[in-house]
């Protein structure tokens, strides 16, 4: 495949180059040249981008492909075939939205592990999946009723994490605080003891993997940072000391701002009034925490929590979250970096994913404008290529 007349964005510097042609073979970028395709190239293998800007595909790191919304509608006894179908459908939608890599951090039935295997066999066409299997939770914790792997003491948490890792998980998800999806939960309340957190971190490190934490408040986050948790989600209420410690430890933060700032979507998905009202109350605190994190130099990533390919008013959730990151003080380029190269680095795949260059995975998006000044150009995305295969184009 050749993409011609494209202008490549250097994701690290923000510089946009002149017109080039990009060759992709066997899923990898094999050439970026001003000369164009060689004579005799099959025209069916050439897409003229007409001057579009080419960026890396999105890497979105807080994905749920099986969770039912609202959470109260979840059924842990649901037939596994239904879970698998829902996961595959949402994954395909994410790919259409430009999310060429998704990190799943809790799927009912461990369905991310299953669809990852199907994708490797080319049975289905979905993004690259960094699978987490089932999250590990206290039975009465934030993961209640969501088909998590349940544990009640350090030994059980270690064993549960080890089981997910041995099943093939790329990372382990835990819930260290309550959340805001249910009216009765407190996002500041620490649900796991330090010993339980440490046990999961130990299991992950023994397998060369890392831990990601659902985390609402400062006290629990500081404890988890010190215990070796590498990736934090939400951060609804974080003080200055907390974000400084996060920055010093070089951890990653996915604020999932859509959870508190995309209330129309939540209503559309059937979340109850109490849940929506709680999110409304938390919105100001949540954004203030994200602003503190940005000012402290914490590394941001893009995580939607909602299915990234879901579309409302013509905008996917992965693009919506990227645009919302600007509210925290990120520039358009920084928000795009959070949605690409930062996520790749968190997932430890930055050598092949997250930027555009020869030898990198041919995960490419094309947009009709400059995304370093206006991220809404992704609403008009013209082309999506994943692993060197055309997903869609209007060119």
Any descriptors?
395 residues; alpha/beta; Urease, subunit C, domain 1; TIM Barrel; 2 domains; eight-stranded mixed sheet; five-stranded parallel sheet; 12 helices; globular; Metal_Hydrolase; hydrolase activity, acting on carbon-nitrogen (but not peptide) bonds; Metal-dep_hydrolase_composite; Metallo-dep_Hydrolase
Mean pLDDT metric: 96
User: How far is it from the N-terminal to the C-terminal residue, by CA?
Assistant: 14 Å
DSSP strand content:
15-25%
Rg on CA atoms, Å: 20 Å
Going by helix content, strand content and strand pairing, the class is: alpha/beta
Write down the domain tally. Answer: 2
Question: Can you count the helices?
Answer: 12
What sort of overall outline do the alpha carbons produce when their principal axes are compared? globular
* CATH homology group of the largest domain: Metal-dependent hydrolases
The biggest beta sheet reads:
8 strands, mixed
> Architecture of the largest domain, CATH level 2?
Alpha-Beta Barrel
How many strand segments? 20
Give the uncertain stretches in residue-range form. none
Find the CATH topology of the largest domain. TIM Barrel
CATH class label of the largest domain = Alpha Beta
Percent helix among the residues? 25-40%
Organism: Nakamurella alba
Pfam family, one: Amidohydro_1
InterPro entries: Amidohydro-rel, Metal-dep_hydrolase_composite, Metal_Hydrolase, Metallo-dep_Hydrolase
Keywords: Hydrolase
């Amino acid at each position: 495949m050749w993409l011609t007349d494209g202008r490549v964005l250097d994701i690290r510097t923000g510089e946009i180059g002149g017109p080039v042609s990009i060759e992709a073979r066997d899923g990898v970028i094999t050439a970026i040249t001003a000369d164009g395709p060689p004579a005799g190239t099959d025209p069916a293998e050439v897409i003229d981008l007409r001057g579009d800007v080419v960026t890396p595909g999105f890497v979105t790191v807080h994905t749920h492909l099986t969770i039912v919304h609202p959470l109260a509608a979840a059924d842990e006894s649901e037939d596994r075939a239904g879970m698998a179908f829902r996961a595959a459908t949402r994954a395909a939608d994410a790919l259409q939205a430009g999310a060429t890599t998704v990190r799943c951090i809790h799927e009912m039935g461990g369905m991310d592990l299953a669809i990852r295997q199907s994708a490797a066999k080319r049975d289905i066409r979905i993004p690259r999946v960094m699978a987490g299997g089932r999250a590990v939770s206290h039975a009465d914790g934030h993961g209640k009723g969501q088909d998590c792997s349940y544990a009640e003491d350090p030994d059980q948490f270690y064993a549960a994490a080890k089981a997910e890792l041995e099943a093939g998980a790329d990372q382990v998800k835990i819930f260290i605080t309550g959340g805001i999806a249910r009216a009765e939960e407190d996002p500041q309340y620490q649900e796991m003891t330090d010993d339980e957190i440490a046990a999961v971190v130990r299991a992950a490190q023994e397998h060369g993997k890392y831990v990601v934490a659902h985390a609402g408040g400062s006290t629990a986050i500081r404890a988890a940072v010190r215990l070796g948790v590498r990736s934090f989600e939400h951060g609804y209420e974080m003080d200055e000391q907390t974000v400084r410690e996060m920055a010093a430890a070089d951890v990653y933060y996915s604020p999932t701002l859509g959870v508190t700032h995309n209330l129309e979507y939540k209503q559309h998905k059937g979340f109850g009034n109490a849940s929506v009202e709680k999110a409304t109350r938390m919105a100001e605190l949540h954004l203030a925490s994200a602003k503190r994190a940005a000012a402290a130099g914490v590394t941001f990533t893009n995580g939607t929590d909602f299915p990234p390919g879901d579309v409302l008013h013509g905008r996917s959730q992965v693009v919506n979250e990227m645009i919302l990151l600007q509210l925290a003080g990120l520039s358009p380029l920084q928000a795009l970096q959070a949605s690409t190269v930062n996520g790749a680095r968190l997932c430890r795949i930055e050598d092949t994913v997250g930027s555009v260059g020869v030898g990198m995975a041919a995960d490419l998006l094309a947009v009709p404008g400059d995304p370093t000044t206006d991220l809404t150009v992704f609403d008009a995305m013209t082309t999506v290529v994943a692993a060197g295969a055309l997903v869609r184009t209007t060119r």
